[in-house]
């Protein structure tokens, strides 16, 4: 008869490493185990649950339906064990543990980077693991416990029910070549420069999602073409190269801007977006993560 304690945590660890790194070879490197050992762990887990968890091919490994169902429980189980160990260790007076945070380029550079530095100074035994991705990836990562906290724009539709808190409202800015005329007039009318021009925006092309398309439509703007890239640095680089004008979040623009490009604010009524922090409340946040969340919310209030 199956017993829950028949499942080894090292099997779960290897299973999650394959999922997160995409192959048995990469998982072996990440976990400092041999590839045959990782394969043996996953095979043992498959025998124990009585189902094939992964489809293997020469290039990449993908989850079966059984693997998809097991994934969030495996993450939660290991997270609970680590949280318990960290909680006991913290009895000595030092907060310990690992906080896994998902985000995207703008908040990572402007909001999280200084916060992580200060948090590490205060709690040197807490590890902050920062991972970046698209809004859909961030949502899925929070849902499956791949990250404990996910910073994400709220204007992209959600597929799962996650708990969240407002962090900030970010302006969307216009990036133009320095030689593009005088645009220092009213913010309300600056968006007109977009009409009939080539525009570069951020988004997730593989997911069919583009930042700011709804805002362009609301303003009656019809660009001649739209190029979607994944990183704000690329937006700035393409604008500088004369490939068009750009739209991007102000935080991403701040950490990406360089000579040859001007950044201009647009009307606040349409050209803003809300950024929230999301987490899956089906499992209680551990102490280190709750401390980090409190620090993040305080940081956002002070901005």
TrEMBL record:
Family indicated by similarity: Belongs to the LysR transcriptional regulatory family.
Keywords from the UniProt entry: DNA-binding, Transcription, Transcription regulation
Source organism: Brachybacterium sacelli
PROSITE patterns associated with the record: HTH_LYSR (PS50931)
InterPro entries in alphabetical order: LysR_HTH_N, LysR_subst-bd, WH-like_DNA-bd_sf, WH_DNA-bd_sf
Domain HTH lysR-type residue range list: 11-64
A Pfam short name: HTH_1
Signal peptide bounds: none
Name of this protein: DNA-binding transcriptional LysR family regulator
């Amino acid at each position: 008869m199956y017993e829950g304690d028949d499942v080894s945590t090292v099997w779960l660890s290897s299973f999650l490493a394959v999922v997160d790194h995409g192959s048995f070879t990469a998982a072996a490197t990440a976990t400092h185990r041999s590839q045959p050992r990782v394969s043996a762990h996953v095979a043992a887990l498959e025998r124990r649950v009585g189902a094939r968890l992964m489809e293997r091919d020469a290039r990449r490994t993908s989850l079966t339906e059984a693997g998809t169902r097991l994934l969030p429980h495996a993450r939660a189980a290991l997270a609970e064990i680590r949280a318990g160990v960290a909680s006991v260790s913290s009895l000595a007076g030092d907060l310990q543990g690992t906080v896994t945070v998902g985000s995207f380029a703008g908040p990572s550079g402007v909001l999280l980077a200084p916060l992580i530095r200060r948090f590490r100074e205060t709690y040197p035994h807490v590890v902050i693991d920062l991972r970046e991705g698209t809004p859909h990836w961030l949502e899925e990562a929070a849902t499956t416990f791949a990250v404990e906290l996910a910073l994400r724009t709220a204007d992209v539709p959600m597929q799962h029910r996650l708990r969240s808190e407002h962090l900030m409202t970010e302006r969307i800015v216009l990036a133009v070549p320095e030689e593009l005329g005088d645009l220092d007039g009213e913010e309300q009318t600056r968006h007109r420069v977009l009409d009939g021009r080539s525009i570069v925006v951020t988004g997730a092309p593989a997911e069919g999602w583009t930042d700011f398309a709804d805002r362009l439509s609301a303003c009656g703007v019809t660009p001649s073409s739209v190029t979607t890239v994944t990183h704000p640095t690329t937006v700035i680089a393409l604008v500088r190269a004369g490939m068009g004008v750009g739209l991007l979040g102000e935080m991403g623009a701040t950490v990406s801007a360089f000579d040859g490009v001007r950044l201009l604010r647009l009307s606040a009524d349409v050209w803003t977006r809300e950024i929230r922090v999301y987490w899956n409340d089906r499992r209680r946040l551990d102490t280190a993560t709750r401390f980090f969340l409190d620090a993040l919310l305080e940081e956002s209030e002070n901005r």
